[in-house]
Amino acid sequence: MDAAVATRSVRIALVGVPNCGKTALFNRLTGSRQKVANYPGVTVERREGERRAADGSEMRVLDLPGTYSLNPTTLDEAITRDVLLGRVAGESSPDLVVCVVDSVHLPIGLRLALEVKRLGLPMVLALNRMDVAKKRGVHIDLAVLAKELGVAVLPTIAVKSGGADALIEAIEPRQWHSLRTGGTAAWSAPSAEQAEQTQNDLRGLLQSVGYRAPPDNRLGERLDGLLMHPIWGMLVLAGVMFLMFQAVFSWAEAPMDLIDRGMAALGAWVGGALPQGPLNSLLVDGVIAGAGGVLVFLPQIIILFFFILALEDSGYLPRAAYLLDRLMGGVGLSGRAFIPLLSSFACAIPGIMAARTIPSWRDRLTTIMIAPLMTCSARLPVYALLIAAFIPDHSVGPFNLQGLVMFALYAAGVLSALLVAWVTKLFAGARRYSPLMLELPDYQWPNASNLLLGLWERVKIFLSRVGGIILALTIILWFLSSYPAPPEGASGAPIQYSFAGRLGAALEYVFAPIGFNWQISIALVPGLAAREVAVSALGTVYALSAPGGDDVSGQLEPLIAHTWSLATACSLLAWYVFAPQCLSTLAVVKRETNSWRYPLIMAGYLFALAYLASFVTFRVVSGWT
Amino acid sequence: MKTPDSAATSARLPAATLAELPDGREGVVAGLTQVAGLDGDQASALITRLRDLGFVAGAQCKVVARMWPGGDPIAVRVGGSTFALRRAEALAVQLGAS
Question: How far does B39 lie from chain A, in Å, by closest CA?
Fold first, then answer.
């Protein structure tokens, strides 16, 4: 091995059109578990992983955002081009390019391969989804393809264990002498003639490998006829969303009760086993009533993500984007905004990053600004707590009233997002045309192991939030709510004399007009760091304000049901539809827009909307009851 | 918006552009044309991207779904893949005789 190779690990880049399976292959090659789904634009940034070659040398594998050509129209596509051309600061071009082509959709992938090959970098071609292609009757002569292209061609099945073995063998460094393609690395945007030439090359290539487009997929077409129908399609979309929120409530009930009772028992046991004092209070009032109170919502998070992941894997999401394109266009959004906005239901951060797939800066900015109005999963515990406490568990026709209210809250978020986009459009004046050109992938059954893995990832994220930031903030809040201790002979709950108690009393001036008491006011502050903390903070604050050290762990729900008015509860729900978003969201907006201006505008307008909505809600409900 | 050339062909053909192709009927792409109402940069970027997606002369295409009102957007199968296109994008794809 020569010295240059020994000191520097080789870099392998995965390139291909969107949704051809690059990330699934990346996961196979590196053993990582990056998110994969069945829609274009899942990967919007460069990701790096490692693989050890058989000779022990280290290979760095780059997963790049999908692109249809090296002529980028969006930011994520530009990343791919820049990495390939070695334009990224401090990096040369990759040492080897693995061009991933979906063999079911051969022409579009092969066209990109021809373009990439012209860069002259060492290259191999991975023909992915060969199993599906065979089933669909797609014939590809691999030997001819390799000979005509002049690069190694490896069939792969990225979603299957062992499905990338041929590729793994081919990218071993000792094989590389055979991979040189020998071109020039100089590149400029292709002229119309060059593009024409590429198309001719492609046509010739497809002919010589004996490619024929797969026969129409009858089932897929029938599904499209229903799911993309202007009326039936819309009804199905509404039905799916509806079912999702019903399920979040009705399926989660039993496991939630179980966790709830477990927490209450744990609190009682710890409270009894430890001598009275600060440690007892920290564990029972802080950790168990606080962080434990958030843990209760794990089943609902799992059910929400079960639906999101299954939809992502099925290929339905881009169809939903198609259905809503007209509506989104009407308020000045690109149809491309649908997927970033949908991701924001999980968390606004990946949603805001996914806005990179939107070509026009202004459309992208609008999408970023309204992404926090999509109710993120961190708000689910807040909604669930308040709904369970204040909304009766009645049936309304075939529906459950609690599920209906939850659906209404999510819908309120979506409607306000559309409204904000529309107002932005009014003020920004005539807007430039923004393209849709969205690929609609083949339908597929959600892959069970992919689904389970995705759920497991979400469970891990949730648990590490509970055990990390939520626990830490809960402990800090417990401390601030317990000290300084009340003076001798003071009456009332000790918390009222603490730092947090005084802060809450001061904030109450601001929030009293919208019906928040001092306990809620305190809880809003740590809720800025992570929204679930509002729930844990309420748990801790109420546990500490309970007279005579009553144990309230696991009983927050009945407690607030008795002490808050309905108007206050509704007002807090309205607040959380807009909730000035968490600090990490603002940090991502700062990074994605490269300025402080937009995160500040975002925080300002959301705070104003939250206050206004809560004020109106509080007054209306107070007047009513 | 249409060149005189395409206006002449539209008399003989069921559809001059992809935007007018009836659902379920096969059409053959004749070429790509600049769409009115877009500035030069955008129009050429649009054409480049449509070409990269497979809307090239001779390619067969079929409209598989159409939103209403106004047939915007539509879903089109071309080269074995399916794309959702807005009307302005479909207007850029000229159809010819098969």
Answer: 9
Q: Is the peptide bond before B4 cis (omega within 30 degrees of 0)?
A: no
The shortest CB-CB distance from A224 to any of B37, B75, B86 is to B75
* Mutate: best of B52, B60, B74, partner A, most A CBs <10 A: B52
ipTM value for the complex: 0.85
Count residue pairs from A and B with Cβ separation < 8 A: 109
Helix (H, G, I), strand (E, B) or coil at A172: coil
- Tens digit of each residue's pLDDT (9 = 90 or more) over A299-332: 888 888 898 889 888 989 899 989 988 888 888 8
Given a contact cutoff of 8 angstroms between Cβ atoms, the answer to whether A159 and A149 are in contact is: no
d(CA B27, nearest CA chain A) in Å: 15
Closest residue in B to A434 (Cα) is B42
The per-type count for chain B, helices as H runs and strands as E runs, is: 3, 5
Which of A79, A105, A86, A83 has the alpha carbon at shortest distance from A21? A105
A38, A103, A316, A436: which to substitute to probe chain B, counting the most B Cβ within 10 Å?
A436
| Cα–Cα–Cα angle for A411, A415, A418, rounded to 5 degrees | 145
Structure-token pair, residue A64? 């790049």
pLDDT single digits (tens) A391-417: 888 887 777 888 888 888 988 999 999
| First-residue to last-residue Cα distance in chain A | 82
Contact A228 B65 (CB under 8 A): yes
Which residue type does A448 have?
Answer: A
Is A607 in a helix, a strand, or coil? helix
The answer to whether the beta carbons of residues A38 and A313 sit under 8 Å apart is: yes
Residue among A599, A246, A581 at smallest CA distance from A410: A246
Q: Give B68 to chain A, closest Cα distance, Å.
A: 6
List the one residue out of A293, A241, A557 whose CA is nearest residue A403. Answer: A241
Distance CA B16, CA B4 (A): 12
Residue A241, amino acid: M
